[in-house]
Design goal:
The chain is α/β, with parallel strands linked by helices and 310 residues long. It has 11 helices and 9 strands. The strands form 2 sheets. It has a 5-stranded mixed β-sheet. Helix 1 links the parallel strand 1 and strand 2. Helix 1 packs antiparallel against helix 10 and helix 2 packs antiparallel against helix 10. The radius of gyration is 19 Å and the shape is globular. This is Glycosyl transferase family 2.
Amino acid sequence: MIDNYKVVCNTAAGRRRYMQYLVPQVVASDVVDRYDIWINTTDKQDIEFFRLLAEAFPKINLVYQPDGVVNGISSINAFYRECVEEDTIYFKLDDDIIWIEPGMFEKMVRFRIDHPEYFLVSPLVINNALSTYILSLEKKIELIRYCPARSSDPLLWGNGEFAAQLHEWFLNDYLKTGKYDRLYCGVKPVAMNRFSINAVLWFGREMKKFGGIVPGDDEEWLSCIKPAELGMANCFNCDAIVSHFAFYSQRETLDKRTILEQYGVYLRQQWKNDPAMAAIMQTVFAAMQRVEEQKEIILSQASIYPPPPS
């Protein structure tokens, strides 16, 4: 809690191969009061993994699909109806946010409180097209050609080789060296322009005004349509950084280049030197191991959701 605001993180879950790295960073934050894991998957091992985490960490709250139907991104919208608590700041993180700058939660929550004029606020996100545009504009990174500020740019969003090079650039030149603060580039408002909502914060009181009803494409509606209707801008606070693993268009290449594993090695090395983080890491990785060891038993159990509509 900060300045009498409860802080609730949420993640539409999800894939345990990514969340094994995200969860420890959220759970360890003293700023985060609750971590809502939206169970938007029918993968039984993933669900068991999240159940084990909820048993281990009181901060974790499992939220099941309000309509009882899971159908990929099409069933995410219903969860927003649960994000309308007064005096609460919500921080939505994609399940493949794999690195979070130390102190980022407090930095972003305070930025959210200090700037109620924006509808959504976001940190600078490594591997997010508009964030990469900002880095290019600020001459923090040099691209082979000019790329416009659009969320689905063929190079910045759609190209796996570019994403691999971007991650390797960040990992080797800024993360492992501890020089990521050299990428800071201030406050960047943006309006009437869709962006990938990999890591965004909003006020519960604002979502409550429309009952958390988010129609159609949640990303288009939340990042572009609704703020435009309200005459509000969104804003990137580029003095706080997170790293986002992959869009579906990039994933195959990044897996071949072992990008996720490289982040995993870095995080393990950092966490083992911190007793609190080491304990959290052990619990999370034990849950990963358990769902693999009990795979046959878990898969034999009945699904908690019916099959998605055909």
